[in-house]
């Protein structure tokens, strides 16, 4: 727990924030209602959702820019209508790849829209929304915030992006939503004080790939008054290390593994 923690809702918070990465995506096909449902059941603080826009401007949950890996179809999301995407099977690939947790229930699972996700879970969870490649999807931020407001979920979301322009756009429209600047480090992570100061001007925290960070990076980010949520930490030994370093939250495909390690919120 850090002094910089943002308290964003009456929702019970774990002492280290658990983010169910693409839902509990170790147990069910990522970014589907099933993976989110398991994440909520495991009492993750957030379910993480990758957002993109279809050709007809609908917000959907999908990580990649094409449907190829996580459905039985092919093609770019931005060239497909929601109807075309809804015709795809977004679950069977998981069964083919993941014998341990595969299930008949996942066969012909559909790609969810953000609206369907909000309708399903409402205020039972919080949502860490990621704007993916926002330069490819004009209007994504506005549509996302509009939907969040329509559902009265402003205090139930946080937003993350690799794009600082996207985060700044959101900050301009809404001062309350916690924002996270994402980094993906190819080499051992380092960050300058100037960059940390800049980020403090438009965001509340940082998300960075766990395997490239170390304790001194964690300290530096925290000393700058920013939250740090490393991703994606799936092995218990790595979870223990992240907790020892004092990170504020952890993205994981296996929220139950992390839950076992942290004291009651
Ligand atoms: O949660 C951080 C993480 O989602 C960023 O990486 O590729 O899984 O979207 P990615
Ligand atoms: Ca993501």
UniProtKB/TrEMBL annotation:
Q: Which domain of life is it from?
A: Bacteria
Q: Which CDD domains match?
A: GDPD_SaGlpQ_like
Q: Name one GO molecular function term.
A: phosphoric diester hydrolase activity
Record domain GP-PDE: where: 16-262
A Gene Ontology biological process noted in the UniProt record is:
lipid metabolic process
Q: What is this protein called?
A: Glycerophosphodiester phosphodiesterase
**Organism whose genome encodes this protein:** Cohnella luojiensis
């Amino acid at each position: 727990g850090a002094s910089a923690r943002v308290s964003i809702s009456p929702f019970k918070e774990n002492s280290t924030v658990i983010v169910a990465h693409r839902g509990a995506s170790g147990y069910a096909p990522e970014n589907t209602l099933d993976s989110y449902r398991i994440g909520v059941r495991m009492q993750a603080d957030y379910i993480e959702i990758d957002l993109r826009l279809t050709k007809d401007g609908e917000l959907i949950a999908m990580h990649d820019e094409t449907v190829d890996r996580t459905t039985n179809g092919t093609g770019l999301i931005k060239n497909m209508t929601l109807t075309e995407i809804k015709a795809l099977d977004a679950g069977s690939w998981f069964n083919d790849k993941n014998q341990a947790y595969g299930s008949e229930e996942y066969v012909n699972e559909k790609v969810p829209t953000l609206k369907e996700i909000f309708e399903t879970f409402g205020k039972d969870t919080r949502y860490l929304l990621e704007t993916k490649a926002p330069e490819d999807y004009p209007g994504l931020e506005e549509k996302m915030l509009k939907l969040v407001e329509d559902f009265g979920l402003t205090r139930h979301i946080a937003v993350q992006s690799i794009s600082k322009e996207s985060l700044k756009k959101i900050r301009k429209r809404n001062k309350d939503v916690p924002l996270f600047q994402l980094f993906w480090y190819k080499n051992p992570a380092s960050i300058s004080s100037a960059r940390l100061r800049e980020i403090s001007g438009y965001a509340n925290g940082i998300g960075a790939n766990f395997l490239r960070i170390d304790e001194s990076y964690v300290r530096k980010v925290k000393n700058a008054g920013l939250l740090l949520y490393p991703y994606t930490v799936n092995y218990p030994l790595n979870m223990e290390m992240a907790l020892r370093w004092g990170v504020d939250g952890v993205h994981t495909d296996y929220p139950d593994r992390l839950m076992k390690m942290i004291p009651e919120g």
